[in-house]
Amino acid sequence: MRGVAEAKEPCSLPMLSVDMENKENGSVGVKNSMENGRPPDPADWAVMDVVNYFRMAGFEEQASAFQEQEIDGKSLLLMTRNDVLTGLQLKLGPALKIYEYHVKPLQTKHLKHNSS
Fold first, then answer.
1. Which residues form the SAM domain (predicted)?
2. pTM of the model
3. What is the mean pLDDT of residues 76-82?
4. Is the pLDDT confidence value at 4 over 80?
5. Cα(7)–Cα(103) distance, integer angstroms
């Protein structure tokens, strides 16, 4: 088990772009394109695509829970609020932000694109 988490300077990778405009509330816009090495449709994401999505969104510590639980894109799109809040064993604050600002919008976007 790790000790106290160290604050890390944000690294800037030329091929990765994150909109840090809404960082205060955990709502960080991550461009969802092949530019970030992920397929555009979350249903096609592998486990590491999900992990990297949350790392890029500013949830470095919490991203490992998705890897430990083997959450791929299809699993992510099936997750309920309760799954995120309790099933991943995350702290409540980050879990709420992950669900409300990332999981739920990804699910909504996916449903809109696939319901026609």
1. 45-93
2. 0.71
3. 98
4. no
5. 25
Stronger pLDDT, 3 or 81, i.e. the higher one: 81
CB 56 within 8 A of CB 32: no
Which spans in the chain are helix H? Answer: 47-56, 60-68, 73-78, 81-82, 92-98, 104-114
User: Alpha-carbon distance 90 to 83, whole Å?
Assistant: 10
Contacts of 57 by beta carbon, 8 Å cutoff, 6+ apart: 18, 26, 28, 30, 102
**Please, which residues have CB within 8 angstroms of residue 7's CB and are 6 or more apart in sequence?**
none
